[in-house]
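subagent[fold] <- orchestrator: predict structure for attached chain, return tokens only, no commentary.
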Amino acid sequence: MSLQLSPYRSYFDKSFKESQTRNYSLSIQLNINELVFSVYNIEKNKFIALESYTFSDNDGYDKLPSILGRILNNRPSFAFPYHSVFFMIDNTFSTLIPQTLFDEEKKNLYLGFNQPFQENSRIVFDSLKNIDAVNVYYLSNLVAGKARDFWPNVKVMHFSSALLESLAINFKNKADKNNVMVNVRTDCLDIVYFTDNKLTFYNSFNYRTKEDFIYFLLITIDQLGLNPETVELLLSGNIDPSDENYNMIRQYIKDFKFIGRNDSYGYSFVLDEVLDHIYYVLFNSMQCE
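subagent[fold] -> orchestrator:
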């Protein structure tokens, strides 16, 4: 039997019942070094659980299926039947195509233009109706197979698809010309900008240092014709006031704040310990049906 993997964070409301998972929705975010999932009670319109696992020593997508099995050893209900399951692949191997220009037969060409070839992977896409675009990306065959073994009704999507759709639903009609959305992933920075209720800019930047981070942010603000003195950043993801990237933002940007929770949902009091913005995409992924 494989070794057990212990959770890094674990919050479960006492109302969570393994016998009731068919009344719950499960949302999962998986990258090469972390898995986090949330449980949503459909009848109560409330998130009732969140659990995360880190495996920093993992060096390949081929090992992720066995890691999913190790998590199952710790949390058997992880693979129980759920009403719905949303499985987000969190990698940087994706590209965005306007809906009007998309041709499914050319999806290999779109992705090959700016992403390196990924072995043992298939090329798939998500249609993003709220921004009139298609997100093309690599999906590990092993990970996809394991997910469908666990949950036959799983909906697989790319993390950036959920990010863009949730921001479009929640902010597209509210953002003004000075609002820039910034989502921080491990070693990756997502920047999203809406004007006139349309997606004007989206890109992801890989970074290694805090200097890389602030460079990509500032150069993007400049290219968008915005001013660091007047722009307002809306921050989500893996960033907090103790973070060096946060300190760089504070040095160069005058106005910024963390994205709050979506008030359309309820949240168990056990989740009060979780900063609202960190799992913003996870808590909003259900909007991407």
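orchestrator: received. Logging for downstream: The CA atoms of residues 7 and 53 lie 5 Å apart. The first strand starts at residue 9 and ends at 12.
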